[in-house]
C-alpha cells in the first residue's frame, strides 16, 4: 500500500522551484551590475579620451560654456559608480582645471575693474574648482602608488620618482591645478593650497626624455571668427 504524501513532501517541489528562481534572480542581478559597470567604464574611457582639449575645440564659446558643466557632472556621476577608474579621474582633473581657467577665472579678471567684490567671488569659486581638480588628480595617482600624497608632502622629489610614464598626465594636471589655486589664494601656499616643491628639470635627468613631455597646457578658447 502506497503511503499518502505528507505535507512536507508535497512542498518539496515548490521549495526547489523557489530556490531555483532566487538563484536565477541573483545571477541576473549580478550580470546586470556587471553590464552596468562595463557601460560606465566604456563611457568613462570615451570621455577621458576627449579630455586633452576636445571639449574646447568649438569656436562657439557660449555653447562650450553651457555644455562643459554638464559634462563635468556626468563624469562625477560616473565616478560615483566606478571610483577607481583612472581615466575618469584624469578627465575630471583636466576638465575642472580647464573650465575654471577658461570661464571662471577669466570672468573674474574681466570684472575686476568694474566690480571688485563680484570679481573676488568669482576668483574664490575658481580656486575651489582648481582644488577639486587637484583632488581628482591625486586620487588617480594614489590608486597606482598608495601613499603618494603623504609621500609628496614629505619629499616631493622622492615621491615623484616612484611614478611611471603613464602617471605623467595625472601629475601634470595635479601640478597645474594646484599651482593655479595657489595663485588665487589669499593666504599663499598654505592650508588646502599648500603645494610641494615639484622636482626641478635637473632632478628628472634620469628619466627617459619621453616621460617629461606633459600634455598641452589649457588655453583660453579663441574667439569665433566673423
Key traits:
226 residues, mainly alpha, Serine Threonine Protein Phosphatase 5, Tetratricopeptide repeat, 7 helices, globular
Q: Indicate the CATH architecture.
A: Alpha Horseshoe
C-alpha geometry: globular
CATH topology: Serine Threonine Protein Phosphatase 5, Tetratricopeptide repeat
How many domains, as an integer?
Answer: 1
* Individual helix count: 7
**Amount of helix:** 55-70%
Give the ordered list of helices and strands: HHHHHHH
Task: Please characterize this protein's 3D structure.
The protein is an all-alpha fold and 226 residues long. It has one domain (35-212): Serine Threonine Protein Phosphatase 5, Tetratricopeptide repeat. It contains seven helices and no strands. The chain has helices at residues 7-49, 61-81, 86-111, 116-144, 148-154, 156-160, 168-183. The termini are far apart.
Task: Describe the secondary structure blueprint for this structure.
Blueprint: H1 7-49, H2 61-81, H3 86-111, H4 116-144, H5 148-154, H6 156-160, H7 168-183
Helix pairs in contact: 1-2, 1-3, 2-3, 3-4, 3-7, 4-7
Task: State the gist of this model.
The chain is mainly alpha-helical.
